[in-house]
TrEMBL record:
Source superkingdom: Archaea
Function comment: Antitoxin component of a type II toxin-antitoxin (TA) system.
The protein's name in its UniProt record: Antitoxin
Organism: Thermococcus gorgonarius
Entry similarity comment: Belongs to the UPF0165 family.
Keywords, comma-separated and alphabetical: Toxin-antitoxin system
């Protein structure tokens, strides 16, 4: 799992860099712009900047154990 930057164009997400994934691999996308807006709408208290790098590390952390 990791973070992939992409452009949404003509109904398709296009990664900015080549990915090391097999064809037709199913993935889940998190749209950060909307995620942060939703947090702000829900809590209305996000006055300080969110550390996106820290947030990404938490998302990538294995929580299955």
């Amino acid at each position: 799992m990791g973070v992939v930057e992409a452009i949404y164009e003509n109904g398709v997400f296009k990664p900015l860099k080549k990915l090391n994934l097999p064809e037709k691999r199913r993935v889940k996308l998190i749209i950060l712009d909307e995620f942060i807006k939703d947090l702000d709408d829900a809590f209305g208290i996000l006055e300080e900047d969110i550390d996106l790098e820290k947030l990404r590390k938490e998302w990538d952390r294995d929580v299955s154990s």
